[in-house]
Design a protein that fits this description.
171 residues; three-stranded mixed beta sheet; Zincin-like
Length: 171
């Protein structure tokens, strides 16, 4: 009986030691995870602090104008009547309506064939900080993505669905 008790105590001690090691490891993992989280948040804040909204909006406007100039005349004339705005990211109202926080652009309003029957003009919103984040601040990549996003949203204005846009290389 004493011998069995000795084995039980040894197993209990061993189990206790293993539990302590597992607990210590779990604490280390949690601390490291918290550190990584804090580091990521700091990096995002740093990126946002370094984001010059006016500069990147001006570049986006330049790129939209250049893209419009490259369109065939009938499309250019029609697209030139669209309101194109820039925002940092989708606001809380848009997100409440189901627009993802990392959305790059948005077409709002009627397609051009339905335009005469609505009080608000159609518009394209470009979320420049999301685009900037996606291309990691690279100006050439930013210009390319502004062009692609603008053409994608313009495609919606002309009645194309997501499949039609993907077929044209405008994902």
């Amino acid at each position: 009986m004493v011998e069995k008790l000795g084995h039980i105590l040894r197993y209990a001690y061993l189990a206790s030691s293993i539990s302590k090691l597992v607990l210590i490891r779990a604490i280390r993992v949690k601390v490291f995870s918290a550190f990584l989280c804090a580091l990521c948040v700091s990096a995002l804040k740093f990126r946002s602090v370094n984001f010059d909204f006016k500069k990147w909006c001006a570049i986006a406007s330049e790129e939209v104008e250049a893209t419009l100039k490259g369109l065939p005349k009938p499309l250019r004339e029609r697209a030139g009547m669209l309101v194109v705005t820039t925002e940092r990211r989708p606001n809380a109202g848009l997100q409440a309506d189901g627009i993802e926080e990392d959305t790059l652009g948005l077409f709002c309003g009627p397609e051009f064939v339905e335009e005469e029957h609505v009080p608000m003009p159609p518009q394209i919103i470009l979320f420049v900080e999301n685009i900037w984040d996606m291309v990691e601040g690279d100006e050439k990549g930013f210009r390319e993505e502004i062009r692609t996003t603008f053409l994608h949203e313009l495609g919606h204005y002309f009645g194309l669905d997501e499949d039609g846009l993907i077929e044209r290389g405008l994902e």
